[in-house]
Amino acid sequence: MSGVLNVAETARTVRSRKCSARQAVQSAINAIRDREGRLKTFISVSPDAALKRADEIDAAIAHGRDPGPLAGVPVALKDNICNRHAATTCASNILRDFVPPYDAHVVERLTAAGAIILAKTNMDEFAMGSSTENSGFFKTRNPWNENCVPGGSSGGSTAAVAARMIPAAFGSDTGGSIRQPAALCGVTGLKPTYGRVSRYGLVAFGSSLDQIGPITVDARDAALLLAVIAGRDPRDSTSVAEPVPDYVAALDKPIHGLKIGIAAEYFGQGLDPQVETAVRAALDLFRARGAEVREITLPHMKYAVACYYVVATAEASSNLARYDGVHYGHRTPVPSDLIDLYARSRHEGFGAEVKRRIMLGTYVLSSGYYDAYYLKALKVRTLIRRDFERAFESVDVIASPVTPTTAFPIGEKSDDPLAMYLADIYTISANLAGVPAISIPCGFDAKRLPIGLQLTGPWFREDRILNLAHQFQSATDHHTHRPPLAAA
Amino acid sequence: MGHKASDIEARLIVGFETHVQLATNTKLFCGCAVAFGETPNSRMCPVCLGLPGALPVMNRRAFDFAVLTGLALGCKISVHTKWDRKSYYYPDLPKNYQISQYDLPLAHDGAFEIPSEGGSKRVGIIRAHLEEDAGKNLHDQGDYSLVDLNRAGTPLLEIVTRPEINSPDEAYVYCTELQRLVTYLGVSHGVMQKGQMRFEPNINVEITAGGQTFRTPISEVKNLNSFRSVRGAVEFEFRRQVQDWLADHDYQFKKRPNENRGWDDERGVTVFQREKEAAHDYRYFPDPDLVPVEVDTAWLNGVRESLPELPLARRMRFELQYGVTADDAATLVADRETADCFESAAERAGAPQTTAKQFLNVWSRFANDRGVSVGRLAVSAERMGELAAMVDQRVVSATAANQIAERMMSSSDEPRQLAESMGLVTVADEGQLDSWVAGVFAGNEKAVKDAIANPKKTQAAVGFLRGQVMKASGGKADPRLAGDKIEARLAAMRAG
Question: What is d(CA A195, CA A12) in angstroms, rounded to the nearest whole number?
Fold first, then answer.
């Protein structure tokens, strides 16, 4: 067998006792053993704890107890999602040995549903980056071409799923960190509405933008996982008490009559023609199935990247202030005084991109600059949000490319932060507006690198974008293609 | 130019920033118990420890307390308020930012009325806002320091006044009245020894000399936690600033930097700590982890209606309604339980002045001995009222009532039963009274002679003799009847 089954299949076989949870976990462990050396997607793997948990689930099944909808499904967490049994490093030296004394909300929900946390995935340090090259530990490779980046910042999670080492992984998306690497790795990645999933236990980068979401092989698996992790959590004041619909049931609704918007802003300069061709082919498919494609406009999208790099860095500069060498995490060995303790611990602990963003964020919040940068960015953010409100008055979903290009070679943009920032040009506005968006495979370029299609929905309408994604995947096979090392 | 101290006029200007610890069970943004004196770092969780991924959740009760206090201070309550992060690095601040309120405090623009010479004075309140306390650094460890985060996250209400306090006494009164208010409202225990109220006066002086007016730089005295130190610090600063100006006329606001100073309690002086550099940049911005608070108008009206009669108003009413002095009214309204207890007792007795006397002379003494308020004594207001009624109706004498009161502290018997079992019911029997009076006259011949010889001394002598009769009767004699008998006997002797 070549790697793991997907989420739905794993849960079905375990629940129906065709396969034990132990076997499901073991097959992931085997796949990781065979493939991880080439891709380097994981920061830590906990096979013993996972097998122990699998045995508990098998025992529960043997005793006739309901093991939960995700029984025996091994999952991986991006290493900025806290769980008690492993270090949560954020791929940063400053948290290299940090083991949280608590589980994130999503970890509690997943565990209660029978899923098994097997590993923690590599990422750009503190989720700051679009290539996973900013990891403080090592670079992850794209399973489709090992000389290319997997995207980022959740690149470890998307590469692991693409290589079929794990049925599903969780990422966090602040400006595209789930969707962009999902597109570059040819998997399905969902960023839920801001407030849909509790952030409790997600190490904050940009608190008003961050959302946890599933990375899977297809939209059905994403629906299964979202159903488990969505909902109000009293520990996160920004999580919303909106009812959680039946995402799986919504998958099969016909899309006839659905109004799909396309905005010229997503098809401008810098877009690789091969990406555009694949996205437009997807639109043709939707039309053929009875959907209506309409032109819309998102006039303020051109300010999204600038706005984002003010808001996100401002929040980050404050969120990362706590890593100071005093209470936990890396502390410089021989500080001369308190200021030196702070300065050296942070200097030694943080990588270049994190420092760059802390400085930028500190600057935009400083007295005399606040109004010109931070306050103005908040106003622009409101305008971007209004763009989406207006757009969703006339369409049900907005379709676009996820990224302007397919995966780029390792090292190509790592010395050019601005070029790197533009990798998120199509994903950032969904975070600024708080709307849900999904990235699904919609083809390959000439180099056989995957291309992603982004479907963006109105607030709390994950059901609608999952429905459309599933209908697309029912009619196409892009998502079933496997990279060479995971070929069946 | 030169000015002698005698040529100038100096006016003290003081404004206060006060941190009041709210009496919630748990911290402002997590479920940890608010504790004092516990084992260091035993009252912490991922939230107040600032662990990665932990998120704050507002303590609703703290907000309610803050709103109640804001209303009592006559403030406007913001319909829309929010939380901001105040950034600075310090080891006792685990996140390296404090969650506070910056530009939209929950309460603003009020006035606090405090008693003042011959009436009251309104001290303007600029704002009141909620924020979390920091932990504590312990520096006396040798070549390292320790951090105790038990206090981190404790809810504080910061109350900022206008600079409208003009004497050390006013400063003292402002602080004591504020303590009275917050304990009266039940929003804070107000225990100074536990740092539950911390005062920071901002002090400067307006000096008029040679037809010109000068203002000295503002000094902020940090973290005063006793009323005495507030008065001492304000007095000291008043003198120091005038002297510094006399020594150097450029010692002026904006020409010289404002200062932070500390209070040295042993020497009774303030000590320079640091210059206030051009406003430290705290990089305030809205905390994205917390949602803004929208205050419901109907709810706010409910809170406003639930606001009790405030201490100063109640004292003034006591003076008018019960005919007690201002000082006595202040004692009776020392705290809400005592004031409530007094009013119930007085109503029961139907005799407020007798009740007041007993509160001030008897019950407050027992309360002081036990370190509690009168309202917390183990004697119900009803029984206190009953005892007062007995004195008023001359069932027992005031002297006897003291003994009964003492017994009431440990007995649940009715005061009347106690009076009977202790043999303290007033004797109005003519024969018995005559015999006590005769005995006292016989034993105090000099006083009797004086009273007859010198009419000016009569009244004093009657008082003395009555006291002797009370003593002889073991407090049982009806004092008024005894007085009547003494006067009648003296008159008869004079006539005879």
Answer: 30
